[in-house]
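Weekly structure sync, notes
Attendees: PL (lead), two postdocs, one rotation student
Agenda item 3: pending single-chain targets
PL asked that the sequence for the first pending target be pasted directly into the notes so everyone works from the same version. It is reproduced below exactly as submitted, 120 residues in total.
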Amino acid sequence: MTTSKGIANPCSLDKLTVHELKLYLRDRGAHVSGNKSELIKRAQVFVNLRMRTQQEIQTDDKENDNKRHAEIFRTPFGEKIPEPWTLNVLWVCDLTHAPLFRTEDLYNYLLLLSMITIFI
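Predicted structure, written out during the meeting:
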């Protein structure tokens, strides 16, 4: 069946039935209306571009999304960082749990932060 496999040779498109051509085009998200010659021309474009099926693209997207999601929540040393939406349990709306800091600490933090951004 041509739906799960790609068509390696564009010349083999002439041997396919209209139903097989429509399945091939439908799997790639193309229009499936028209006569056989129109379907062959349309399928030829997808063969030349080596277009994958929509299901293959969605599977790859899901795998890449999961991989990226796992990489986002890791430090450069490989330590796992908790996901942000799981941290709201301990959050409060006031500053009662904020750590104590002096004005000098704030000044040093802002000064060092600006120096770091200059070098990056």
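Discussion points:
- The CA atoms of residues 19 and 25 lie 10 Å apart.
- The chain has four helices and no strands.
Action: rotation student to compare against the earlier draft before next sync.
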